[in-house]
Amino acid sequence: MTYTEKPLIEIAGLSKSYGTHHVLRDLELTLPRGIHALLGPNGAGKTTLVNILSTLIPHDAGQARVLGLDVQREKKQLQGLISLTGQYAAVDGALSGMENMLMMGQLFGLSRRDAQRRADDLLGRFDLAKSANKRVSTYSGGMRRKLDIAASLIAGPQLIFLDEPTTGLDTRSRQALWDEINTLADSGTSIFLTTQYLEEADVLAQRIMVLNDGYIVADGTATQLKERVGGSTIQMHDAAGHILETLPTRGSAEDLARELTSIAEQRPEVSVTVRKPTMDEVFLELTGKPASEHARTPNAPQEASR
Ligand SMILES: Nc1ncnc2c1ncn2[C@@H]1O[C@H](COP(=O)(O)OP(=O)(O)OP(=O)(O)O)[C@@H](O)[C@H]1O
């Protein structure tokens, strides 16, 4: 079996403590290739897990394999197949976008010619070609973040870890980056991202893991996580759109049809909307903590679209 056929990530009994503070406790997880998101409140251990999986820090107990390779014993080999983009863009402001790309290419041992070819391609893909020769200090936050991700892709990694890739970006830059992440995944690169934005996980990820107090408290698709929290609800509105009443349902077509027929007969004047639980409600249910205001996507729709 080659590494391309192995699970993307395999974790068994993984634990990590800082002194007496148990940050990760006995984690078990197997993920196939694709886009996966790790959600959790501040201090839940998301960055710690990403740092372990990307070989930056050792774990205390258990096993972690990425692309079939042991994160500690086969660290060097693994480092050639993955890349990590952290919360703060690690590009050099005094250099141009192209110079940053070439420097990264050199670091990964590419020839100047190969690095130039890859840099041209990536800067074009991330819509940075026009600014390639401008100093990065003149770039916007969104452009820096895109350059950081483009630079991390220069050696063609199989898997890219993105630690809070869109924190601090405005809605438009966030959307543009989501498009890039989807394009990357379409071209065969797997993505493991951490995020505090519930909508980001909802929109992008095939699997979502929720980390809380060192444990993975939920793992599934956005739809599965929402189903855990409960079935759809029926909201009744007046003509001005004000919510008059919210009725819980079990979510089956039969249950919904019965409730809707009863409303049609007894309150024909109201309008109705059927809504699924939002990721905010899922987060609150699973972690006991509301997603903090800053962790919500600006202008995020109130209702999830799935
Ligand atoms: N080097 C360290 N030494 C001691 N404690 C640490 C260290 N790194 C992280 N921690 C602690 O471990 C816990 C988890 O931190 P981590 O950065 O992994 O959380 P996170 O989920 O990424 O949080 P955030 O969303 O705020 O970035 C926190 O309580 C943090 O203070």
Automatic annotation (TrEMBL):
ABC transporter domain span: 9-238
Membrane topology of the entry: Peripheral membrane protein
Localization in the cell: Cell membrane
Region (Disordered): 287-306
GO molecular function: ATP binding; ATP hydrolysis activity
BP GO annotations: response to antibiotic
Protein keywords: Antibiotic resistance, ATP-binding, Nucleotide-binding, Transport
PROSITE patterns: ABC_TRANSPORTER_1, ABC_TRANSPORTER_2
A GO CC term assigned to this protein in UniProt: plasma membrane
Pfam families in the cross-refs: ABC_tran (PF00005)
InterPro entries according to UniProt: AAA+_ATPase, ABC_transporter-like_ATP-bd, ABC_transporter-like_CS, ABC_transporter_ATP-binding, P-loop_NTPase
PANTHER family the record matches: ABC TRANSPORTER ATP-BINDING PROTEIN, DOXORUBICIN RESISTANCE ATP-BINDING PROTEIN DRRA
Protein name: ABC-2 type transport system ATP-binding protein
Organism: Bogoriella caseilytica
